[in-house]
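Quick question: what would this complex look like in 3D?
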Amino acid sequence: MNKILIFGAGKSTSYLIPYLLEKGAAHDLQLTIADINLENAQKACMDSERCQAVKLDIFAEEERGKAIASHDLVISMLPARLHINIARDCLKYEKHMVTASYVSAEMEALHEEAQEKGLLFLNEIGVDPGIDHMSAMQVIDQIRSKGGKMLLFESFTGGLVAPESDNNLWNYKFTWNPRNVVVAGQGGVAKFIQEGKYKYIPYNKLFRRTEFMEIEGYGWFEGYANRDSLKYRDAYGLQDALTLYRGTMRRVGYSRAWNMFVQLGMTDDSFTLEGSEDMTYREFVNAFLPYSPTDSIELKLRHYLKIDQDDIMWQKLVDLDLFSNTKTIGIMDATPAQALQKILEEKWTLDPEDKDMIVMYHKFGYEINGVKKQLDSHMVVIGKDQRYTAMSKTVGLPVGIATLQILKGNFKLTGVRIPIYKEIYDPVMKELKEYDIEFSEFEVPYLGYNPDNVAG
Amino acid sequence: MNKILIFGAGKSTSYLIPYLLEKGAAHDLQLTIADINLENAQKACMDSERCQAVKLDIFAEEERGKAIASHDLVISMLPARLHINIARDCLKYEKHMVTASYVSAEMEALHEEAQEKGLLFLNEIGVDPGIDHMSAMQVIDQIRSKGGKMLLFESFTGGLVAPESDNNLWNYKFTWNPRNVVVAGQGGVAKFIQEGKYKYIPYNKLFRRTEFMEIEGYGWFEGYANRDSLKYRDAYGLQDALTLYRGTMRRVGYSRAWNMFVQLGMTDDSFTLEGSEDMTYREFVNAFLPYSPTDSIELKLRHYLKIDQDDIMWQKLVDLDLFSNTKTIGIMDATPAQALQKILEEKWTLDPEDKDMIVMYHKFGYEINGVKKQLDSHMVVIGKDQRYTAMSKTVGLPVGIATLQILKGNFKLTGVRIPIYKEIYDPVMKELKEYDIEFSEFEVPYLGYNPDNVAG
């Protein structure tokens, strides 16, 4: 029997657990769902006899250790900062571990010991990070195996609202953690390489330096740069690539509008607003505008941000009730970012019948036999409803598929790893196709950024 | 005999030490100048028999203690972070202390003990902070003594180049620490109150929200907001004032031009540039611009910042040799702010014959007998040369004057203090007039920001 312990029965497990239960008979699986809330764990078990729910506090060391000791593999679907406690126990009791989170420095530090004990701690096997690594490395390795040399790699991912539920002017709703959306791009300059030149975008220009891309059947998207475009340069073996750019996808027009909040200072999370609790939305706006005894807040804002009266940007603000003098922030000592989140959540929360959408777009530029070529690939996954979301599906299924592969002994790798290896991405990407998670690839003319080698 | 120990013989002592030596005979003073560099200390003594120079490392605890123990009063002209070591010794050996620096939290913590021992640790008695406190409190206390109620207080200070030495398009040269100028406004939102409303300006708008003011005979200036406009609200007793604004003065047009650097990201001090050592100024600029195979860096920048071809902003950049492809940054692992400082220092360093200028401008709005009034006051001090600067004069003389007052027993205050008290500011401001450091005051119509009580 293969005994799997899953920490956390949150919304990102709505595909993972059914997947493992569906495979249960064929692979003789026994699942334990451990959650601080027993009821959640019980619900997640879906009355399966192959599943037991237990109430477990992640900080209860003894209980946690006992639970881990009695299983073969541990999946942590908890918030990333909690993984390390589990990882240390997994080392102690010699169990494999799987997470969908970024490898922290603490996790990375366990690499050698995990390797010595023959354990695989597989991280970053969700969607972003996860499917992005696997889908990119699959193409990059194919190009290399044919003798091609990588020149350019760009990669964009977005968690958006599905076209059929896309009914606001921003073409955006919150499908995951709203806070991350509000503070996106803060905490450091965006750094990347274009045609061998390092480029830096400060926060105040981040949302004005977007790139555009089209996905047939879904129209146009834009991407703004992530902070960390060079993060996987070594992992992907792209040290010689001339262009490396990683970004976040939005519908065209979102970034230009979001930039209004950035320019006003409304996304700042570093200080608290005086009197935020009783502050109306209108007063919130006015706190970022010069004082005037005579002019309206509306005109002050239009002038400050140079918004023409017929600019659609304006209606995007109006649609958020940003100028309401009755609605209040209602949060004590709120930062501007918290206040803005409150305002946005009122309008950008998914309706019960709304569906989300995950989009991913890669560009691979390479040279082969003296010819420069480009391959683009993209993936679109649309959720079923608010429980069976595209996000949950694209995070949970790679975790589940990789888990089974580990239990079957199909991965030879040990240590702390991310899924950039053929032995991992091949079986996972192959099985994901059965669930309609797949990439369309198509050759395009190599664009690069410098077709004629003109000095720039 | 009154024995004074001065730590530090740096450039800010060029007025302080001659002042004390000049007063030496009348007040039976004996000075000791302690510096890590003996030669500097010796030079500062100017061959006076009332002055001895000693080499002293501020971190040599025993020596430091001995030196302090054998004097009556200690002046620290060292960098602010070093004051605390001296202050603790002053407590131990029961000596008064004077500095021109902001009161740190560590210094503040000594207040009660200093008070118990009957010691005065007088800080912030330079120009800004220093003369700003004294000149403001003198007027505020006068208004109050007549029964007036403060409505508005605005205060601006600038360290600039004197009109006769003002010969670049920026109307600016470095007269003090260049680094502080380059990173000015970073590290937090600018917060102030206008007509009872809290206002917040993010960094990316800071240099676009300036106020203007004229000083007769010197023309127009502009001010951008300091981070801390509310810092002295309680100290000044201005809890009920409707408008509080503190700012930094520049010549008109400086801030709009400086904003170009902010928008590009060139003032960022949080990351290092790849290959900064061999990077040309031109490459530095290009690192903040989108890649183009065909367009010039010049046109990309004009387009990015929307600079018309006949806009004087453009010439301000050209005059800095910002587009040079021969000049290099020459600093390893430089942050953008460090690189920008290097570029600016080449053009903004004072020539040997150049003079600096300190300007200060206060606005006091108040209500008396039901009538709203406003008093503006300003001060202009121009340096003699690069040794006898306006900065050194306006920092050193208040320190020296206050020191004599303490030794004469004229201040009854004890504890850690700043010069907001009549017993301090009256004699100091009076004596400063003898050195042509004085304010012109004049009544203006009360402007406030809301003469007609129209909703804003």
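Answer marked as accepted. Chain A touches chain B at residues 188-189, 191, 194-195, 197-205, 209, 262-265, 268, 270-271, 273-275, 286-295, 297, 304, 336, 449-454, 456 (CB under 8 Å).
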